[in-house]
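Forwarding these from the shared drive since the link keeps breaking.
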Amino acid sequence: MLYNRAQMPKSTSVFFCNSCGNEFAKWAGQCPACHEWNTLVETAPFLKTARTKTGQKVSLKPAESFTVKTALSSQTGYTFSTGIGEFDRVLGPGLTKGGVYLLAGQPGIGKSTLLTQLALSLQPPLSRGGGQQAGGVLYVCSEENPAQVASRITRLQGLSSQADHIQLLNTSCVENIIDALKPTISNRDLKSESCDLICIVDSIQSVSTVTNPTTPGSPSQIRDSASFLIQAAKEHSVPLIIVGHVTKDGDIAGPKMLEHMVDTVLELSGDRQHLLRLLRTVKNRFGPTDETGIFRMDGGGLNEVKDPGAILLEGRVKNAPGSCLTMIMEGTRPLTVEIQALVVASPLPIPRRIAKGISGNRLQLICAILTKHLNLSLATKDVFVNVTGGLEVKDPGADLGIALAIVSSVKDKPLPENSICFGELGLLGEIRKVGFTDKMLKEAKSLGYTIVFSPLSHASIRSIKLT
């Protein structure tokens, strides 16, 4: 029997994939997009026209139009300091009203601790008429309960009246978060130069919106929840900080779209077995992306580190073969780190190349350069390289330090006392210039190093002689 297209029943449901977030018209055991099994969930399709629960159309607020001059004059104090110097260094001008920030990092690295300290460091809001406080910090406790967050505040600050401006919201519903912001938003002074309102959501993987029936943490749920929160933050000029989880590969969990939706993507990294924590920007619409904030984790939280070299070189054995001091750049800040190398005879038919703090491929490449241009016999030896302090070094200027540490270990000769090095190695054995060469050379001389191996002093690795 043939049916007219107008008489055919319309689909009353769609299917979402909890893994990739794609939509499909019919169910399948395996997602056609990401090929994951049993991830399709049936749900009602979204309406093209927004309606209330009674079926009436929702009246939309007309869009406002601004010129550049009126947009700039509508808000004074557009940015403000967080009160944490290293945090401001990374952000640039500080927090921006209406800015959306995504903070990601490994579990237990200190994301919640850093945001708790941020909430404590912000100045309490000015009181309005009748002594009632308006604004403050709204901390959404979707992963923890308020008692857990309060205990962390007490550990970091103690029972103090300075924490009265922090409101702990115990919910994981996006609509409840937006509703909690409305009474505070109505009493705000947008022209205030101080921070009178900020919202922290910990985390985006644990909140959900009722408009999306998929489980919290699914790509479509993260996308929709973030969209509603970002819309509220932009509309009411509220700084919004969102905590994000990472996968086992180190990528931010959820759809890549999340990183495009926010204004700034922050990454907190470090080795949990060591004290240092590095805060970097992957994306920043309001400031630089080449700055690094350095913190030290202890019982009192994350403390700012003004002199990282003193911590990185703590306990160093001087005049030891296989040890080399090298200077690297973390953002626009030169750091002195120690690179250690150990070269021993290998009992294996294929010698090992084990690197900690640098890429394994990078170590293989440097070993090949030394074998070719210095005639070092590394084919039957294991090579182990370690960057002390738990740092992950990606600066190409550390190539020369890695090479000299290996040469020092092979020849069992220490490098000259009060020496330091930096430079990138080419495949032809040449030492190439890196960024901020003049700044690193000036920093090395100011620290008292009398011998500096650099592209300005030596043209190739062959020209460096260890005595």
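-- next protein --
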Amino acid sequence: MKERLEICLSGSGGQGLILAGIILAEAAGIYDEKEAVQTQSYGPEARGGASRSEVVISEEAIDYPKVIKSDILLALTQTACDKYVKNLNKDGILLADSTLVTELPDIPNKTYLFPITETALKKFDTKLVTNIISLGIIVGLTEVVSREAIQKAVCSRVPVKAKEVNKKALLLGFDIAKDLKKKIGKQAIEK
């Protein structure tokens, strides 16, 4: 792992990005025993406004809690992709939801495009697990935290009645990541 890994989870309010950031930070900080900090920002709208969650993970003490240059960018909307891709490291990874991101920027980074929201609807009949599927894909692609840690963090944060569906959503994310990794040589874009 890099000395300092910076992750930006972006989209719109109601997509569960703040919760996803908290889960990822807890997976790193509590279960993998790394240093981790999570910050967030969102528009005044309860749903539909801009939303961003940032997570910094390090083996050393974190002296600045904000993302300077993203190593991993999750973009669940076109607006988020357009706004935050400029801050993506040249060696960074972009994971974009092709359900809502239809125009990819011309960047030399590793780009993964997958219909995350659409898959959540098809497989689970709800968009509410889009954030958890996304975490599964990120962890599956990057191993930023261990699978065990993210599973424990998800189970400790989601409501009891939603635990099973979220566990399944996370595992689906791992499977999607495995398929995307196989396609990287062929450009990992699935529409």
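The longest strand covers residues 88-97. Residues 163-183 form the longest helix (21 residues).

- D.
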